[in-house]
Amino acid sequence: MTGVSVGVAFAATGGTPGDGNIGADVHEAGHPGTPVADASSGAALSRHAARYPAAPSQARRLPDRASASARSGKAARGERAGSAHRTGAPKPAPGSKPSPSASPKPSPSASAAPAQPYEFYDSIDPETVPAGAEVATYATGANPTPPSLVAGRKKVLWIDTEGTDPEAQVIDVEPGCASPSQVPQWVQSHLADDPGTVAIVYTTLSEWSEVQQEVSALPASMQSKIRWWIADPTGYPHIVPGSQATQWYWGSNYDESEALPSF
C-alpha cells in the first residue's frame, strides 16, 4: 500500500519520483526565463510549474523495499491495492475492451484426514452398551437377542455362534461355538447371499492359524472379503497385526473392540 499511495501523491502535486519534497512548490532558479515572483504582488511561482518542468533533485529516494513492495505479487493474488485512488487511473480508449482482471486462484482444499480406528461393543445384553455406540450381539446360540433390544442403534452386527446362519455378519469360532472346519462353507454361503458384503470371522489368537488354513482353499476373491476379528484381551486398545478388529477388553456386561475403517 505504501508505494501506491506515494505514487498518487506525486501525481497530485506535480512532483516526480525521487523528489524529496512531495507537494512543495517548484524551485525558483535553474531555468532561463522562469518568471521570478514580484515582491509587490506576492505571486507564487508554482502556477508556472506546468510550463517549466522541475530540474532533477538530489533529495533522498524512497527505499527500494518500499517501491518493491508496491510491485509485489498482489495482482496475481487478485488484490486491489490502493482502491481509494482508482479515480486517478487512465480511462481506456473509446471502443477498446478492458482487459479481464486476474481472478484469484482458489486455494487447494485441505486433504481429507485419514479415517481413524473406532470402538464397538459386543454383549448378550445390548441394553448395557453405551447409547449411540455400535454393537455386536447374537443371532443364534443359547441366548439369541430379540431385534427389539437393538432398535434405533446406528449399526448392529449379528453373530452366528453355531455356523448355521450365513445371513448373520459374523461367525464365532471358539471352543463351544462353530469349529474352524465350518468356516469355509459359512463364508461361501454368506457371500453368495450378498456378494457386495464382507464375511467377518471372530476367533482367538490360539485358533487363528488353524482357521486361516481352512479358508486357504477358497477362491482369492472370497478370501479378500474375509475380515478377521481376533480376541486378545490385554486391557488396552490395540489391533493385532493382520486383523481388522481386536477384542481387547472382556467385561461383566459387555466386551470392547477396536476396529479399522476397513472392518
The largest sheet, given as strand count, sense and whether it forms a barrel, is:
8 strands, mixed, barrel
| Averaged pLDDT | 73
What is the H level of CATH, i.e. the homologous superfamily of the largest domain? Glycosidases
Q: What is the molecular shape?
A: globular
N- to C-terminal distance: 56 Å
Sketch the topology as an H/E string, one letter per element.
HHEEEEHEHHEEE
Question: Over the alpha carbons, how many angstroms does the gyration radius reach?
Answer: 41 Å
Number of helices: 5
Query: Uncertain runs with pLDDT below 50, 5 residues or more?
Result: 1-92
User: What is the fold-level CATH name, i.e. the topology of the largest domain?
Assistant: TIM Barrel
Question: In percent, how much strand structure appears in the residues?
Answer: 15-25%
How many individual β-strands? Answer: 8
**Number of separate structural domains:** 2
Share of residues in helices? 10-25%
CATH architectural grouping of the largest domain: Alpha-Beta Barrel
CATH top-level class of the largest domain: Alpha Beta
Q: What spatial order of strands do you see in the largest sheet?
A: 1-2-3-4-5-6-7-8
Q: What key phrases describe this protein's structure?
A:
263 residues; TIM Barrel; eight-stranded mixed beta barrel
